[in-house]
Amino acid sequence: MPTIEEELGRRSLLYSLLMPVMNQFVPGLDEGKGMYFLFVKSEAKTPGGLMARPVLTSYYKSSYFRDRPYDPYTNYTSPNETILCPDSYQSMYSQLLCGLCQNKEVLRVGAVFASGFIRAIRFLEKHWVLLCKDIRAGTLDSQINDPSVREAVKRILKPNPELADFIEAECRRESWEGIITRLWPNTKYIDVIVTGTMSQYIPTLDYYSNGLPLVCTMYASSECYFGLNLNPLCKPSEVSYTLIPTMAYFEFLPVNRKNGFTNVSQSAPRNEKEHQELVDLVDVKLGQEYELVVTTYAGLYRYRVGDILCVAGFKNKAPQFKFICRKNVALSIDSDKTDEFELQNAVKNAADHLLQFDASVTEYTSYADTSTIPGHYVLYWEIGLSGATPIPPSVFEDCCLIMEESLNSVYRQGRASDKSIGPLEIRIVEGGTFDKLMDYALSQGASINQYKTPRCVKYAPIIELLNSRVVSNYFSPKCPKWVSGHKQWCT
Ligand code: AMP
Question: Which one of 221, 230, 320, 324 would you pick to mutate in the ligand 1 pocket, going by the greatest count of ligand atoms within 8 A of its CB?
Answer without folding.
Answer: 221
